[in-house]
Specification:
The chain is an alpha+beta fold. It has a single domain, classed as Endonuclease/exonuclease/phosphatase (Deoxyribonuclease I, Chain A). About 15% of the residues lie in helices and about 30% in strands. It contains 7 helices and 20 strands. The strands form 6 sheets. A 6-stranded mixed sheet has the order 3-4-2-1-20-17. Strands 5-8-9-10-16-13 form a 6-stranded mixed sheet. A hairpin with a 5-residue loop joins strand 11 and strand 12. The longest helix has 17 residues. It is globular and about 55 Å long.
């Protein structure tokens, strides 16, 4: 099973049509935003040795544009053209990329609810692997309130061919850091602390995934002098992640060529997949969790073998990526037994 979560920054049907500059198109990574996304999600040859060569069984779209701002209200129709375009493009790519149509057939879960200001979460799934069974907006069970800012949208699935095995995915978009340095991480950390009170936290085989705007080691000192970490309470009830701290995922707007390595184009470790697997009934065995470097590892496919675009064409590559998103995706591969 392969799952990709990706904050695509105000993704809409119009944004999917945005074309890259002719020079970047010539590299073979995609002519427009939609083509680029499809190649990544499908594990196309353009990303050989960067992404596992198989399509995602679930593609979780963070920051999917919709109308409205009342959390829990019905989404408006303008998010559906985006989901339709993504679904249709993924299905069209199955035979084009020589995948077996008997193994991959994509559809999307009706997002149903607004999760924040003009925003919801998209779940595009492989019908050959997953069967959707429900959708809900997360609430804090301690007070029945929606989480502040952008409340998570959760989708549950039965695993095809695995009787009695279900998976739960909660799409996360935390509030960003703000304020003075000592408390800058307080808004996203406090949001994450409340995740332990949601219904999803109490269900095995749950994945909280998306843009947390913080990482496990981030902390602040509260008014009582206690050090507050974002996921300590979740860890205490069996959650964890395979991503090491300082795995950078947030993308810079401009290249800082004086910075070493990937910090020249990445600047924060914000995205993750915090998962819980039952120890009493271990249905899920996580094999790998990673953030593919879609900038530093991008290749010019006109050469054989393909040649690296970074650093020689680093600025152009970063500019093109910023047309797609300001975050890298997170990929998790696991076996269901």
């Amino acid at each position: 099973m392969k799952v990709i979560s990706w904050n695509l920054k105000n993704i809409s049907a119009n944004k999917l049509k945005n074309k890259f500059q002719p020079l970047f198109q010539s590299y073979g990574l995609g002519n427009n935003v939609l083509g680029y996304i499809v190649n990544v999600v499908m594990g196309a040859d353009q990303w050989e040795d960067v992404i596992s060569p198989a399509p995602a069984d679930l593609f979780v779209v963070i920051e999917l544009k919709t109308g409205g701002s009342a959390k829990g209200a019905a989404v408006s129709g303008n998010c559906y053209p985006t989901l339709d375009a993504l679904k249709n493009a993924l299905n069209a790519a199955v035979p084009t990329l020589n995948y077996d149509p008997q193994e991959y057939d994509f559809d999307y879960v009706n997002p149903i609810y607004v999760t924040g200001q003009h925003e919801t979460v998209g779940f595009i799934y492989n019908k050959k692997a997953l069967t959707p069974t429900g959708t809900a907006v997360e609430r804090d069970t301690s007070n029945n309130a929606y989480l502040p800012g952008r409340t998570p949208l959760v989708a549950t699935f039965d695993v095809v061919g695995k009787a009695g095995v279900s998976l739960r995915f909660s799409g996360i978009h935390d509030p960003p850091p703000s304020g003075a340095a000592a408390v800058r991480m307080r808004p996203p950390i406090n949001y994450c602390v409340r995740l332990v009170n949601t219904p999803s936290a109490k269900v095995v085989n749950t994945f909280f995934l998306g843009d947390f705007n913080c990482q496990p080691s981030d902390n602040y000192i509260n008014g009582k002098g206690n050090i507050i970490y974002p996921f300590a309470d979740l860890y205490a009830v069996g959650y964890g992640t395979e991503l090491p701290d300082d795995t950078l995922t947030s993308v810079r707007r401009k290249l800082v060529s004086t910075n070493p390595g990937e910090s020249a184009y990445l600047n924060a470790a914000y995205d993750n997949n915090i998962y819980h697997v039952s120890t009493a009934n271990p249905n899920v065995v996580v094999g790998d969790e990673e953030v593919p470097d879609l900038i530093g590892e991008a290749k010019d496919m006109t050469f054989d073998p393909p040649s690296a675009l970074y650093p020689t064409n680093g600025r152009a590559t970063l500019n093109a990526y910023n047309a797609v998103s300001d975050h890298l995706p997170v990929i998790i591969d696991f076996n269901v037994i």
